[in-house]
Amino acid sequence: MRQLRDDTHLILEGEVRVYRRERSKRWQAAFVIDGHTIRISTGKRDLAEAKEYACDTFLEYKFRHKNDLPVVTKKFSDVAKLAIVDMRKQLDAGLGRKVFADYIVCIERYLIPFFGAQFATSIDYQKIQDFYEWRRAKMGREPKASTLNTHNSAMNRVFEEAVARGFIAHKSVPLMVNRGEKRSRGSVACARTDGSMNHLSEMGSAASKICAAVFCSQVLITSGWYFVDPKDAG
What we know:
Helix content: 40-55%
Strand content: 15-25%
Strand order of the largest sheet: 1-2-3-4
Oligomer: single chain
């Protein structure tokens, strides 16, 4: 019989493996349903709580399979876990971007706890605003622009997974605004759905003309960019 590591535990007669990754304080779990290996983060630091969460999740997946329900649903948590698995595979193969590790932490620590039970197709503008308020309260401060860029990119990575699997149309993916950095007076923060940022002053005269045309609008979506009123950009 294979010797288990000190940070690995088997429950439910060995059907569920609860383990902890190196340099991680939170417990993970893995099990097989209908030939599919399911890996989840329990989000728990306490082993007893992690085992309970893993057991509940395993039984939920067993129920889905027994009742001919899809093992993987359109719930944000399920799509997010698929994205995490893909990023970890790429990282393990030496092909993934280093920032994937930051995306995974963000998804597990912020996105899944807030959006997890919601369907990816139901996340709209208002729910994004609610998330901003929840995150601010959780962090105890306004996040920095660099942190928001990482969070936005992590969110978009989850939605890329949803789009690739046909769970959601690309046009229905919500836009994320970065307001974590003070802007100079008169400048306008611009963000693309990949989390990249820019200023109109850096985009040339053509963009400045666009800014003048939409100055009174809070948000205008055009050519993949959206522009934020200077009063809100800071």
